[in-house]
Amino acid sequence: MKIAIADDYQSATRTLACFSKLDGHAVTVYTGTLKNANDLPADIGDVEGLVLIQQRVPFTQAHLDRMPALKVIAQTGKNVAHIDLDACTRRGVAVVAAGTGSPFAPAELTWGLILASLRSIPQEVAALRAGQWQSTLGVGLHGKTLGIYAYGKIGSLVAKVGSAFGMKVICWGRGASLEKAKADGFEAAASREALFEQSDVLTLHIPLNRETRGLVTADDLARMKPTALFVNTSRAPLVAAGALEQSLKAGRPGFAAVDVFEDEPVYGAAHPLLKMDNVIATPHLGYVERNTYEMYFGAAFDNLAAFATGKPQNVLNPEALAPK
Q1: Most exposed: 1, 14, 71, 165, by fewest CB within 10 Å?
Q2: 235, 245, 252, 271: which one is catalytic?
Q3: What is the pTM of this model?
């Protein structure tokens, strides 16, 4: 089977142990973005199997029109909201999805961003290389308040590290999330407003869906302290469009650390947050870690291999396989 792997920015998939699961197939790895159907390369028309990495490619009818030989899409992870499933079904293209990543990878990056921001690590590294010595005064964590918005698999890990640092941890989210937080010995914020008002560091760990898009507003951010740090390693559209930039310029919160952007990838530093001195940003590295990749791609490649042998598994649209 001729297989394409889309939007592998670092050409990382060929370095994975699980890549051997595709032995015997003709595999092409595209490092440039394929998110725009008009930019699909000419040689992709005869691809039969396509691997999508998370939600990097919004796969539409226009993509299908440019890929007439496509038979199966293997999604890393289980989220397929970015795929036009109905269009795939009409065209007889099976969408297979299974497997999860590691909650440890994004939790670790969250703490990397928090520490980098409060201790001005990127600035100090740059200053030291430029011949300077101790150009900033850092902020410690002990005794500060850590706000966790959504105490799930990732949020709970972030909370436990904060506790180990001697921080007071307060949480907010849905009922089950708060009950789990309290069962683990953490405090529920008195209200959603109090979460924003009291947190010295506030970090989001909320899945993006119709209900959560734009959940955090400019009014929410304006409640934060001028010394507070807002951290988003989840999804950029959780925050209302332009609200974070507006709030940072107004001085509440005073700082932000982000790993996600509304339209990715971002090239040429073409985003307003990247021009702000009170922002530290990384290029969506939360799940970009070898063990997580092995988990995600291992499951996707297993699904492709099963499909190629005529035994499809984890098919989300079995109607696509029905005889025409």
Answers
A1: 14
A2: 235
A3: 0.94
